[in-house]
Amino acid sequence: MTKNTVRPISPKISDAPRAQKRSRPVQVADQIKRWVVERDLRKGDKLPNEAAMITQFGVSKGTVREAMRILEAQGLIVTKTGPGGGSSVGEVSKDRAMSLLGNYFYFKDLSLSDIYQMRKMLEPELVAHLAGKLDAETLVTLREMAHRHPEPARSPEEEKQQHISSLAFHARIADAAENELLGFVISFMARILTDLTVYRRLYEAPNRELWERGRRHQIELVDALERGDGPLARAIMLSHMEGAESMMNAQEIRIAREFMVE
Amino acid sequence: MTKNTVRPISPKISDAPRAQKRSRPVQVADQIKRWVVERDLRKGDKLPNEAAMITQFGVSKGTVREAMRILEAQGLIVTKTGPGGGSSVGEVSKDRAMSLLGNYFYFKDLSLSDIYQMRKMLEPELVAHLAGKLDAETLVTLREMAHRHPEPARSPEEEKQQHISSLAFHARIADAAENELLGFVISFMARILTDLTVYRRLYEAPNRELWERGRRHQIELVDALERGDGPLARAIMLSHMEGAESMMNAQEIRIAREFMVE
DNA sequence: GGTCATAATTTATCATAATAAATTTGGAAA
DNA sequence: TTTCCAAATTTATTATGATAAATTATGACC
């Protein structure tokens, strides 16, 4: 059978009773969303300009503008000035989606072990599925990333940089996932971890053995991916996750108090 | 060690060069975000009122209002009229977070097998971890949900209703997850599947055996969860996932073209 | 003390005008 | 004809002020 593609839906955009409670800008924004969906507009397709919407919806300029800001904040439209300008549909970027989701978890106090529990479930399976399917360019990139830091860090700042590089390696693999949902979740976790401000305890010297094993894991993982050895890739990734988790746990997390922004 | 809690961060809210390009409402919204973060404001804490922000930021009323709409659209603030009203911090609701994330996937054409690949990775592990940890109330609720439909559906509409009930069962389990990230992702998938408009092929009679097995799975799963038999719970859930997947694949998906709304 | 009408407060919406940004157009120069 | 600069045009952006709507606070009254 053909590939069933799936889209979010909610049949009732405006409940008749609730319609009164929602502010007019929100109502207008919802109508525009419906308008986009009905016509199956895609990225780049233009919306009516400001003046047209004012007459179309019978509301004031300010109301229309607030509605557009709502849609813009969600990443659904982009707006330009000048002739041929106006608003047009703009598909939500991955970065923006991660920021918006990050706002949700800002209030949730995720723990490191929460994140690593998920990573251990997802990333080994991902690389198992990916083995033998990566194109040459991706493999070259991954190999380059794996070899980027030939020596252990000599300072906390350098160690943090290496940590971020390692997470970029994982995000790069996630980008190669055919399953966009899987790829997104893994990238999101990498982003959360990247945005953390992590400081090694001062009295704890960098652990050369742990570092060396992490590096070897990456290199062996790329090899396994290239050879198409899924089970090995999975095993390496799982081992790597466990190592990374214990390294993280050996460090102090300075709690980051910032909303994600794109 | 104490539980490391983790928060999203981005160190550079306003890049100096980009600051000029962003519209004033966006800049104001960012400043308010920073204001909230610096003071570590929490849900319910009040923001300055409109008039104060106008003087504070030296912009017009319209600009402030657009900024508030941006923050409101992201679920970060709520606004009320009247004395004692104004804007206050409001933590992003799960529903809103799912809607915003749904907007991202609206353009991505996820496939059913993408979703089920994820479900098979996550849900069996979740119930394995949850076995023996659920409180009595949750178990009662789950058992009630599992027994809700004692007979196979006699019409496509009834079948769809049963399908939605089944997904609510899974969402209820996800809500019990200690790991909020894991729970969110599972709930999100349940929501996507719930919002689908699914119609059984007309020439294909409801399959009583498949239905019966799905129902038995739910009941046995609750038993295993109560007894604390993690491995069995995992096995049941995996089998259930596979059954659900094949049932979904045996149906026609009317592609749902709608944005999620809260 | 409870209830109801009224006042006060705050956001919500509207209307209008001026400003700024971006693109197109027109014309002069090569 | 082509190139390039400047004016005109289109569109969003910002600003200001006035009015409406919603909510809470107040106080008179029973």
TrEMBL record, chains A, B:
<dbReference type="Pfam" id="PF07729">
    <property type="entry name" value="FCD"/>
</dbReference>
<dbReference type="InterPro" id="IPR000524">
    <property type="entry name" value="Tscrpt_reg_HTH_GntR"/>
</dbReference>
<dbReference type="Pfam" id="PF00392">
    <property type="entry name" value="GntR"/>
</dbReference>
<feature type="region of interest" description="Disordered">
    <location>
        <begin position="1"/>
        <end position="24"/>
    </location>
</feature>
<dbReference type="InterPro" id="IPR036388">
    <property type="entry name" value="WH-like_DNA-bd_sf"/>
</dbReference>
<dbReference type="GO" id="GO:0003700">
    <property type="term" value="F:DNA-binding transcription factor activity"/>
</dbReference>
<protein>
    <submittedName>
        <fullName>HTH-type transcriptional regulator LutR</fullName>
    </submittedName>
</protein>
<dbReference type="InterPro" id="IPR036390">
    <property type="entry name" value="WH_DNA-bd_sf"/>
</dbReference>
<feature type="domain" description="HTH gntR-type">
    <location>
        <begin position="22"/>
        <end position="92"/>
    </location>
</feature>
<dbReference type="InterPro" id="IPR008920">
    <property type="entry name" value="TF_FadR/GntR_C"/>
</dbReference>
<keyword id="KW-0238">DNA-binding</keyword>
<keyword id="KW-0804">Transcription</keyword>
<keyword id="KW-0805">Transcription regulation</keyword>
<dbReference type="InterPro" id="IPR011711">
    <property type="entry name" value="GntR_C"/>
</dbReference>
<dbReference type="GO" id="GO:0003677">
    <property type="term" value="F:DNA binding"/>
</dbReference>
